[in-house]
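Sample log: Tudor domain-containing protein.
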Amino acid sequence: MDRTDLETYQVQLSQVEDALQAEPDNAELASLRTELQELISLTETALAQAAGAASLKVESSRKAASTPALAWSAGDECMAKYSADGGWYPARITSVAGSEQNRVYTVMFKGYDSTEQAKPSDLKPLPASYASTVSATKRKHETDEEKERKKKKNEKKLETRAAKAKEQNQKQATWQKFAKKSEKKGVHIAGVSGTSIFKTPDNPLGKVGVTGSGKGMTHVSQQSKHKFTPTVDDNT
């Protein structure tokens, strides 16, 4: 229905009313007048609703035009419209090109390596629920990384201890080899071939841990103090 239909119904109603004045008892004319009046009322209501909807649409468009677009930057996370199916999916902006009035963004959808160009109208912020999920996943990922870091640290400690033990064993083997060679050459080294410096000496007067224990102390002669005797001259 449009304004033309309304005007047509109004003209027809005027004609029917003129006819009823000439034939006031004509039931068909009276019924037609009632139908035309209802049509006019319905048409006016429809036209008023259409006008209100158009006004609301214009107002929304004006607000959208006055609202500045989000300033997206490379590295930002967003929801981007996929051109293949028109759906919105999580993505990351990899680059920004074009003029300030005609920006062109290159986005990479999560879980995919391919990129796609998008207009500002093809981007929107991530929903709060998605941000919370990402945050929880990130915390779990950090916890797993911490566990892996501790595991590697413990493994490194074990490797260091094993290396030190191996080095100690190598030094001990080298020392034992050296001691055996010395023993063959007649050089006695205490603590080798079952001989220990802490072995109980055969001499009952000896002491454990004292080399040459059981032997007497070396005698050192004590020198007496020299006395000076003055000489007397007989001619004096």
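Observation: The first helix runs from residue 3 to 22.
Observation: The two ends are 173 Å apart (CA to CA).
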